[in-house]
Amino acid sequence: MGKLIGERVIEMRKLRNMTIESLSAQTGLSMQQIESIEKNEIMPSVAPLVKISKAFGVRLGTFLDDCDNDGPVICRNHEKCDSMSFSTSNNKSRSSLNFYSLAGQKSGRHMEPFIVEIKSSEERNFIMSSHEGEEFIFVLDGVIEITYGEKNLILEAGDSIYYDSIIAHHVHAVDETNAKILAVVYSPI
Q1: Which residue in 146, 96, 143, 86 sits closest to 123, CA to CA?
Q2: Domain range annotation of the chain
């Protein structure tokens, strides 16, 4: 599977002679959060990873893969892609999202395409995410709600949305239904 995200953060931080304190100052993340990421105690959500990748001057995918494949990458329908469950320091906030990378083997990519399974959750105190870049979501199955700034947007199977990730946002399933989406995240270095 390669290195864990925490190991990659430590490696990049040390290569740049950065302390946890200086990484915290550059990213706006707490030192405790960075330490938890480095110890692999939590799998950070996309927003903290974007902030860390920007501080290091690397693409977001650097933390999700360690491949050298420059050619096209095919992810077959019948093959199970590696899954990642993202969370924040609040375990309830993102525990209902499972990400399946569709391009984990492609090096040097600028977009991160995922199939995301969204499990229904009774939790309604969502922690909003905000980071540089853009996101595209296409709903494959079910109904989702996207809280985007002050708006709550409902999308059903076949609907799509493209938005600026700098606006605080959160994606979750509606009511007791599960959903599945295609999500493409672009984050500038």
Answers
A1: 96
A2: 5-63, 83-186
In CATH terms, the superfamily for domain 5-63 is: lambda repressor-like DNA-binding domains (1.10.260.40)
Q: Fold identical between 5-63 and 83-186?
A: no
Angle at 168 between CA 4 and CA 166, to 5 degrees: 75
Average pLDDT for residues 24-33, to the nearest whole number?
Answer: 93
Say whether pLDDT at 74 is over 80. no
DSSP-derived secondary structure letter, 73: -
CB 155 within 8 A of CB 144: yes
Q: Which fold has domain 83-186?
A: Jelly Rolls (2.60.120)
pLDDT-derived band at 2 (thresholds 50, 70, 90) equals: very low
- pLDDT digit string (tens) for 86-105? 443 444 444 577 878 787 77
Measured CA distances, 9 to 6, 19, 47, 129, 154 (Å): 5, 11, 15, 20, 36
